[in-house]
Specification:
Blueprint lengths: L2 E5 L2 E3 L5 E8 L8 E7 L6 E7 L4 E3 L7 E6 L4 E6 L8 E8 L13 E2 L3 E5 L2
């Protein structure tokens, strides 16, 4: 069973960048066909941000297309989320997740393994 630990969150001004990492232990990410990043702002539901499917197909929420990039480094057993041109509405707790199958990559109810989250705050 995989354990996921996110890092890289912080406070940044609008227009800035952050790179989130999700380090896996206990198992290799190659055993999980679907990896995703989700976020949850106070008072809102958790939403899918980006996902990567085995074979390399990528998925992005419309709100982050062109600004966020998901990637996976199997040698480091780590998932990344590069976030550029950050906006105040990107402020949220960000979570990574893993699952063995990938039917709806941006839907959180299909993921079985979750990290504890890392906070991202975008404010001037």
């Amino acid at each position: 069973q995989v354990q996921l630990v996110e890092s890289g969150g912080g406070s940044v001004q609008p227009g800035g960048s952050l790179r989130l990492s999700c380090a896996a232990s206990g198992d290799t990410l190659r055993n999980y066909y679907c990896m995703g990043w989700f976020r949850q702002a106070p008072g809102k539901e958790r939403e899918g941000v980006a996902a990567i499917q085995g074979g390399g197909r990528l998925y992005y929420a419309d709100s982050v297309k062109g600004r966020f990039t998901i990637s996976q480094d199997n040698a480091k057993n780590t998932l990344f989320l590069q976030m550029n041109s950050l906006k105040p509405e990107d402020t949220a707790m960000y979570y990574c997740a893993a699952n063995s199958f990938c039917i709806a990559p941006l839907r959180n109810n299909q993921y079985n393994y979750w990290g504890q989250g890392t906070q991202v705050t975008v404010s001037s």
